[in-house]
């Protein structure tokens, strides 16, 4: 049976419609999947935060207006509002989430709330609203909770005391302390405060008599317990952070990268000032006290004179001057800083030569030095500079660490063009008319003259001694002496 001529077109249209329907179904499925997954997550969270979740395993004991519940709430205490309960203590809540909004709904007359030893609790759901009558909240032994949301209590109109001692808290927000209008006492000791990731930096800008510091009754007993400032008093760290912010030069960025304690227990900061990529033509005139590292890469600085001569730079340990326009560093010779620095990086400047003798002396006597970086400069590759410079590089391979980047500039002489200076043949540098011409510096000329004079005096002495032994005749000089 033969198909009508229009059947292939109809068949093609049907196939196109089937493909179109399949694509639409696939797109709708993809769009709906996140929504379904989110609903499932919300249901799980809602179920985990429900006060009804652990009624069968809970144990509650009441005594007049006080209620103690361990492992959840029994059904009799969450089936309606209990106006007679004014003090509630929740022990060992077995879930990762606790719904405080529902808690307030079931116990609207609460005056005091304690949540203790809930090692699985990681978050709170809901917030205490301004109609709450709670005057005191105590949270203790919450080992899985790093931060209590500020808005959990910020709207509580009757809250007077907040006790957060003995947890694993690392951060706290200012609104949590300044929000409740009647709050008088906040306890924060015995937590794991992290002073190094900006979570507490807002404390640094608070004045000593501010609302925050007067409400935190144990502020001066708080200790930093994480990473950089572990074991250091929190208030001292905050004072240093405040000082750094106030003294940081524009347009640079300053950060406290390390702290140490002296024998008397004083906290000594190690501060990094980052002025890189700021289009600076001169370095900053002032630095925060305790600055140890200054980064000035990728600017337009053409001299180090202001750095060496500025008394605020004397204790600077690490100086990064990469990719500037510095053509000479003769100011380093004889400077006090050059004998105590730790890191000096001059990569990518316009240096053609350096005072080799000064660098040699500084590296020898400097017990703090870690490394010097000199790569990517247009070094002068001639017989007067290269032999001494090469000797310096080979002598201090441990200190001058980027020797693979210390090369002669590109030139027509293929024997030295872009060749690493520490490995270059001096014959290629000092050759002239096929002969090797070794450089004679002024100091070498003086040394040769002195050596010739010494040899002359020594020869004259031997001659006079021999004459005296054979003839008994005194030297001419002794005959004219009185």
General description of the model:
- With 482 residues, the protein is of the alpha/beta class.
- 28% of the residues lie in helices and 15% in strands.
- Strand 14, helix 7 and strand 15 form a beta-alpha-beta unit.
Number of strands: 17
Give the strand content: 5-15%
Global morphology? elongated
Helix tally? 11
Specify the biggest β-sheet.
Answer: 7 strands, mixed
Order of strands, widest sheet: 1-2-3-5-7-8-9
Radius of gyration in whole Å, from Cα? 40 Å
Low-confidence segments? 33-46, 433-438
How widely separated are the two ends?
152 Å
Structural class designation? alpha/beta
Secondary-structure element string: HEEEEHEEEEHEHHEEEHEEHEHHEEHH
Average pLDDT, rounded to a whole number, is 86
Keywords:
482 residues; alpha/beta; seven-stranded mixed beta sheet; 17 strands
Summarize the structure.
This protein has helices at 7-48, 100-106, 174-178, 211-215, 234-247, 305-309, 356-365, 386-395, 426-430, 442-471, 476-479, and strands at 59-63, 66-70, 87-91, 97-99, 112-116, 123-125, 136-140, 161-163, 185-187, 253-261, 267-274, 291-295, 318-320, 343-345, 371-373, 431-432, 435-436. The chain has 482 residues and is of the alpha/beta class.
């Amino acid at each position: 049976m033969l198909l009508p001529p229009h059947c292939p077109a109809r068949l093609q249209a049907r196939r196109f419609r089937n493909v179109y329907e399949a694509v639409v179904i696939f797109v709708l499925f993809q769009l709906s999947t996140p929504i379904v997954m989110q609903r499932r997550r919300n249901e799980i969270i809602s179920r985990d935060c429900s006060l009804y979740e652990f009624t069968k395993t809970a144990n509650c004991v009441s005594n007049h207006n006080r209620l103690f519940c361990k492992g959840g709430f029994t059904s009799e205490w969450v089936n309606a509002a209990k106006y007679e309960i004014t003090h509630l203590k929740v022990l060992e809540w077995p879930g990762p989430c606790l719904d405080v909004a529902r808690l307030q709904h079931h116990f609207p007359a609460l005056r005091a709330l304690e949540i203790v030893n809930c090692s699985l609790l990681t978050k709170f759901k809901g917030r205490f609203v301004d109609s709450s009558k709670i005057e005191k909240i105590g949270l203790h032994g919450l080992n899985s909770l790093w931060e209590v949301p500020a808005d959990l209590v910020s709207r509580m109109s009757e809250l007077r005391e907040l006790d957060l001692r003995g947890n694993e808290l690392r951060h706290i927000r200012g609104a949590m302390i300044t929000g409740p209008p009647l709050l008088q006492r906040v306890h924060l000791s015995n937590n794991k405060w992290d002073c190094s990731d900006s979570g507490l930096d807002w404390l640094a800008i608070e004045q000593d008599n501010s609302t925050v510091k007067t409400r935190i009754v144990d502020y001066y007993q708080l200790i930093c317990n994480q990473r950089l400032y572990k074991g250091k008093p929190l208030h001292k760290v905050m004072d240093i952070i405040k000082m750094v912010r106030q003294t940081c030069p524009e347009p640079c960025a300053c950060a406290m990268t390390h702290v140490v304690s002296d024998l008397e227990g004083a906290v000594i900061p190690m501060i990094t000032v980052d002025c890189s990529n700021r289009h600076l033509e001169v370095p900053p005139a002032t630095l925060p006290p305790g600055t140890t590292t200054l980064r000035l890469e990728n600017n337009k600085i053409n001299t180090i004179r202001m750095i060496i001569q500025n008394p605020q730079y004397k204790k600077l340990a690490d100086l990064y001057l990469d990719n500037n326009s510095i053509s000479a560093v003769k100011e380093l010779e004889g400077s006090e800083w050059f004998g105590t620095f730790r890191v000096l990086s001059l990569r990518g400047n316009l240096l053609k030569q350096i005072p080799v003798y000064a660098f040699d002396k500084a590296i020898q006597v400097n017990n703090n030095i870690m490394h010097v970086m000199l790569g990517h400069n247009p070094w002068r590759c001639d017989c007067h500079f290269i032999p001494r410079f090469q000797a310096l590089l080979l002598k201090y391979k441990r200190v001058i660490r980027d020797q693979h980047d210390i090369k002669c500039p590109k030139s027509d002489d293929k024997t030295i063009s872009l060749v690493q200076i520490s490995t270059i043949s001096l014959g290629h540098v000092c050759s002239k008319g096929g002969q090797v011409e070794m450089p004679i510096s002024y100091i070498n000329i003086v040394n040769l003259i002195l050596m010739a004079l010494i040899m002359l005096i020594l020869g004259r002495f031997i001659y006079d001694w021999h004459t005296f032994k054979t003839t008994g005749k005194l030297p001419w000089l002794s005959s004219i002496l009185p």
